[in-house]
Design brief:
- The protein has helices at about 50-80, 210, and strands spanning about 35, 35-40, 80-85, 100-105, 120, 135-140, 145-150, 150-155, 155-160, 190, 195-200, 215, 220-230, 235.
- By secondary structure, it is α+β, with helices and mostly antiparallel strands.
- It has a domain at about 85-235: Umud Fragment, subunit A (Ribbon), CATH 2.10.109.10.
- The strands form three sheets. Strands 3, 4, 5, 6, 11, 12, 13 and 14 form an eight-stranded antiparallel β-sheet that branches.
- The N and C termini lie far apart (about 110 Å).
Length: about 240
């Protein structure tokens, strides 16, 4: 009886299967050879990148890192924190000339300005490129501010100010511009949404006694950390 269609001899006496007479075909692919040498699978040998390409890749990576760092720094400066240099002695002895302070900008977006805060704010009545000022908040919106001799009184009660080295002169006492009762000479009623600020160095500070209360929307942020000099590092 003849074999069926498509059948192949299976005994050892039959013809060998196709490819059996080529031992190389049974070797793993990575061990096969070609006229030009061994092959690694189906891929040709790769040429290592040149020195110029490696250098450009390194430069590109550093450029990306630099751009990201600059973007993060600008983001922090705009919305979170910024370092300011103290230009004058109006806040002595709390802050001395050339001290560096870190100002937190986000806080007043979350809560109100508090009495006693040392704040940075835009110079009232000046051009946009004028230097910012730094003073201490002593009176809040709706409160009355009054100077009796060398002492500050809020709503008739004396304000304790342990941060002062000495009270000194508090001139001028009247009139303070921008108050609700302006130009009444005896006291200042701070408008709602505004605060009155003074420098800690009262004899040498041009502050709210001269330009009146300031709008809270002009406040840049609160100084909370003295960064320089290192031997005076600490809170404000």
């Amino acid at each position: 009886m003849s074999a069926g269609l498509g059948s192949q001899p299976t005994s050892s006496e039959g013809a060998p299967p196709a490819g059996q007479d080529r031992p190389e075909a049974q070797l793993p692919l990575e061990w096969r050879t070609s006229p030009d040498g061994p092959l690694d699978g189906d891929q040709a040998p790769q040429t290592p990148p040149s020195a110029a390409r490696r250098a450009w890749s390194l430069v590109s990576e550093w450029l990306v890192v630099g751009v990201c760092a600059l973007g993060l720094a600008l983001l922090l400066k705009t919305f979170l924190v910024e370092v300011f240099v103290i230009p004058s002695g109006s806040m002595e002895p709390t802050l001395m000339v050339d001290n560096r302070v870190v100002v937190y900008k986000l806080g007043y977006r979350l809560h109100d300005v508090n009495r006693g805060d040392v704040i940075v704010f835009r110079h009232p009545g000046q051009t946009a490129d004028a230097d910012d000022l730094i003073k201490r908040v002593v009176a809040l919106g709706g409160e009355t501010f009054e100077i009796r001799g060398t002492q500050v009184h809020i709503d008739g009660a004396r304000l304790e100010e342990p941060y002062l080295q000495q009270a000194g002169s508090t001139h001028p006492t009247v009139p303070i511009p921008g108050c609700v009762n302006d130009p009444e000479p005896d006291l200042c009623v701070v408008p709602e949404g505004e605060v009155l600020v003074l420098g800690d160095n009262r004899p040498d500070s041009r502050d709210g006694r001269y330009f009146g209360p300031i709008d809270v929307d002009t406040v840049v942020g609160r100084a909370f950390l003295k960064l320089w000099p290192p031997n005076d590092l600490g809170g404000v």
